[in-house]
Amino acid sequence: MDKVTVSFTPEIYIALIIILAIFILVAVYIVILIVRVNKTLEQFQGELRLLTDHTIKALKNIEETTKETTQLLNDVERQINRFESFVDNVINKIPFLKSRKREEETDDFEPEKSRGHINNLLNNLHAIKTGLSIFWTKLRE
Q1: From residue 24, how far is each of 14, 20, 35 by CA, in Å?
Q2: Inter-helix orientation angle 10-93/95-105, to 10°
Q3: Tens digits of per-residue pLDDT, 10-31?
Q4: Up-side HSE of residue 1: CA atoms within 13 Å toward CB?
């Protein structure tokens, strides 16, 4: 077999050197871009970690506040129930108040006709009891 020799002109060598230089510059540019993207991703990861830490702390605070609020609402409910029980006990212990309570439960009850300190006390206790019951019902909705 015969050897084929290819001879390049100086212009082809110069073109190949220019193409090689362009490839090297592009490779360096790509490496620089990758380094910058990596730094940006590291910064993003750090900020995301910080945001996650703050979010976890906030969620823990919300959880604690929710527990405390639930406990407070349960305490309020117990106090309302105790007060209602107290009012009912007071009414049941005084015979006059028992009959008065029956009058209140009828449709012809007229609070304007109430006289005396005991009647005023009963009206006030009944109003407070009713108000607390309505407040608690609305709060639970």
Answers
A1: 15, 6, 17
A2: 120
A3: 898 899 999 999 999 999 999 9
A4: 3
| Torsions phi, psi for 87 (to 5 deg) | -60, -45
Angle, alpha carbons 32-37-39 (nearest 5°): 95
How far apart, in whole angstroms, are the C-alpha atoms of residue 129 and residue 88? 10
**Residue ranges of the chain whose pLDDT lies below 50:** 114
The tokens describing 72, both together, are 């407070």
Residue 75 tokens read as 């305490």
Q: Alpha helix (H) ranges present in the chain?
A: 10-93, 95-105, 116-140
Contacts of 8 (CB under 8 A, 6+ apart): none
What is the pTM assigned to this prediction?
Answer: 0.47
For 26, counting Cβ atoms within 10 Å of its Cβ (0-12 exposed, 13-18 middle, 19+ buried), the class is exposed
Six token digits for residue 134: 């309505």
Q: Give the type of residue at 119.
A: N
